[in-house]
Design a protein that fits this description.
By secondary structure, the protein is α+β, with helices and mostly antiparallel strands. Helix content is 38%, strand content 13%. It has five helices and five strands.
Amino acid sequence: MVQEAINVARKHGIFLEPGNPNGAAGNCLYESIQDNINTRSCFTENLDNTPEYYRYVWMTEGEKKCRASDYYPGPKTEEEWKDAWKRLQETSDWEIDYFGDLAIGVCADALRKDILIINTQWQTKKDFASQPISVIFSDHFDASNLKNNDAPLILAYDGRHYESLIPLTDQDI
């Protein structure tokens, strides 16, 4: 999956290498973000806690942001809303209809960083990557939430799993 994402990026003039592989145990988004920030010198902060910690913090704050946005309540009841956010905050469960897709935007918002996603070719019954490269902006939920770094996080995604990707040169950043 990672090599396929690297090939997709190369076709668009972006040269990348794999970051540190993650455990693929339900926290791959958070592990990939943590690796991307901690590995790349263009980011000054370090995320030294566990992926589960960041998942809880970011998803707790994200629920508040989403409640104040057009995403609330979405196609869900209040009980479904509460249950889904609790699962996003406290478990390794991420494949939650409607809410799983909000998680990446919540991370971009919490970190105040854009996230560049290199989509590999994938298709499931419900999902299809329509663009090879997509960007989730830091101001996804709140226009005043400006990014704190011009360099985006870079992740590979195959519809079920995230991995960190590292730019090879300053130009690729």
